[in-house]
Description:
The protein is 47% helix and 11% strand. The protein is α/β, with parallel strands linked by helices. The radius of gyration is 19 Å and the shape is globular. Coproporphyrinogen III is lined by residues 32-37, 46, 51, 78, 80, 82-84, 96, 98, 101-102, 150, 166, 213, 215, 259, 336.
Amino acid sequence: xxxxxxxxALKNDRLLRAARGEAVDRVPVWVMRQxxxxxxxxxxxxxxxxxxxxxxTPELAAEITLQPVRRFDLDAAxxxxxxxxxxxxxxxxxxxxxxxxxxxxxPLVEPGDLGRLVTPVDVRAQxxxxxxxxxxxRHRLEGRVPLVGFSGAPWTLMAYMVEGxxxxxxxxxxxxxxxHPEASARLLGLLTDVVVDYLVMQAEAGAxxxxxxxxxxxxxxxxxxxxxxxxxxxxxxxxxRAGLAQRGLPPVPMTIFAKGAHYALQxxxxxxxxxxxxxxxxxxxxxxxxVGPGVTLQGNLDPCALYAPVESVRERGAALxxxxxxxxxxxxxxxxxxxxxxxxxxxxxxxxxxxx
Length: 356
Ligand code: CP3
């Protein structure tokens, strides 16, 4: 295992420049779930190994992280892992079921179940494999593009831990917010502590930008988001910055992607992140007006637009740049790739953005 922290010099820093609001020669583009089942080389490796075994084996996680970067002219790599490694670190069992998605067979049913969580979490002991994968990828990338680290945001993690998996309504997790507001705040606080340590560890290991996924924001409304999710999102950015400074480490730009939080764009822009990610339901002009000139926007092509013929995908890539502008913008999808998508569509999107 390579463990030197002297990394190869970065040759393409468009993503980081755009995140910091600096001028770029071309708009950077990457794609959520760019490493995944739509790639035949991913499916081949995945047939041989269980999902979380891949996450826990730096050699395998590194290989999958690099797969899309080898194929396409992307401007970022994202470490192969999953947001649900955090509930695992808290002692919960998480399984990845083919065709179903994540399953937590013993979810948190009532506040007393918080006693089952193993706290405090020593992230280096429990999640050190993610740090080792990040360091390995930084070497293997040879400075081609920056490496993005990530975590789920506390509310999204709580929702999985209470629901026991995906849900159309999130009614069990939301019931906690209304029925057990204090226990919910306790759980969210405990998750915030872990997420902060986890992200600091990732930056220390070599992650050059940190993205926080609040994928379940869409189930909340302005009031519940403001009361439960947003304070954690704020704390994560503030405490990660403080944690890096305390260790004498350079700051890294941070992105908040709160899917479905069109009702909170202004607050998200003021929550301490350089980049605000957008899902495809938000109009670029409306988003820019809401967030102001001081943050970078990321997004937001409807993932299903990738089902169009490649010429059309290329044109939509160029159209993103026309709508969002060339500065303070990172092109991406409004959510992730689906397994039945054609890899050629990613190439077309990249060409469309870069050619604009
Ligand atoms: O390429 C990348 O984006 C990096 C890897 C990555 C995965 N999951 C791999 C994965 C990232 C960044 C995630 C984040 C993640 N995981 C989120 C936040 C982003 C989002 O999608 O909103 C969430 C909510 C999860 C939880 C999760 N993991 C779900 C809901 C699923 C099932 C989705 C599905 O399409 O079946 C997963 C599984 C998962 N995570 C897969 C991959 C490649 C597919 C599982 C498999 O190979 O069997």
